[in-house]
Amino acid sequence: MFNRPPHHELLWSRREFLRRAGGGFGALALGSLLHADQARAATAPLAHHVAQAKSVIFLFMEGGPSHIDLLDPKPLLNELAGKPLPDSFVEPLTAMGEKGSPLLAAPRTWKQHGESGLWASEWIPEIAQCLDDIAVIRSCWTDGINHAGGVCQMNTCINTAGRPSLGAWVNYGLGSANENLPSFVVLCDNNGRPVNGPRNWGSGFIPSSNQGVRINGARDEPIANLNLPKGYTAERQREKLALLQEFNAAHAARTQQDDALDARIRSYELAFRMQAEAPEAVDLAREPEHIKTLYGLDHKDTEAFGRNCLLARRLVERGVRFVQLYSGTGSKWDSHDNIEPDHAKLCRSMDKPVAGLLRDLKQRGLLDETLVVWGGEFGRTPMSEKGDGRDHNPTGFSMWMAGGGVKGGQAIGATDELGLYATEDRMHVKDIHASILGLLGLDNLELTFDHNGRLERPTINEGSFNRKLVTG
User: What number does CATH give the domain 27-223+282-471?
Assistant: First the structure.
């Protein structure tokens, strides 16, 4: 029979808990601390850039938004609509395993905006008003030609599973700025599941405590199982967790280093601390009405993504390092047909919330230290599919960044005259990740983790920081 200690001995500090757990678990904790020290040693500012960003909000348009309908105007596309691709495009396209299809017009109304004169279509009128704070990267490319590979690569730098996500690397490299909240949070705009599911925010081979935590901003209880069960008191919960810690410690003392067990113990400890702080962090009722309106919470079309954008702001101002928001969860941006009504609806759902987020961060003085990234796993082709849609385009598409030291009001790189291939200042996903890490002061080739005797890096030994993001 297990002998429980007196009640007063259940309320241990973390130090006392580690002391009582014995050498096995103490070594486990020491190993974790050494990994943290190793990561922190790699966080010195890059020689070419003094970091301003402290956190990232990654707005992920799952399914692949059409760059040539949003941020990269191509007048020639409308002139050649209905005709086949010019001969100069056919050979590389065939090498990709595609067959040429008639070009599909992009019947957008384009305007230049702000002092920068950057172009945007009528589908994103609110984001268009923020373009002076935005650097549009028009020359992105990736290896992932389908959703599973594309989403995987945009999250982990490689199109096959098994590596840590970008958010996990940021968490590992910078550590938490608030011990009572997760450092990496994921929000979806519906109850669906993104392609690849939790692997998109997994930790791979680095410590499991760095993985993302999905919360649901659309529910009355955004963080599942956080609230105490009915009839439970905080005192009873403390006793329950203390007993659970004893069982875990006894098991840890009998085993070698167990990363999964360590992560489980840390998750229980974090969950207990979150019960005090997280309910306030996710309570949007505390926000004034004009802020809710700014994010579009007063309209059905924008309410879901607006809630998530507002939650993202509340989280980063409380020290959360990395927040990833999925728009169109379940590949809704994938427009193989009906691109006009489908993209128009999705743009309405995210345009005002995203612009509201940028404006709110800026008015609070948070935009300089918060890097906002927008994009999907790839773009769309200029050729038609099914007569009124566009296929996946991994060879050239647009993303944008704002805040976090980014010089706004500029377009970086270019695609060809039809928007099919990135042609100038090309940025692979590894370069995009290297640049995000660089804006946080992390060198993608110096941040390492020893995995089975091999030093692993977030961008696998490749990828370069694009200095134009900060210099223009």
Answer: 3.40.720
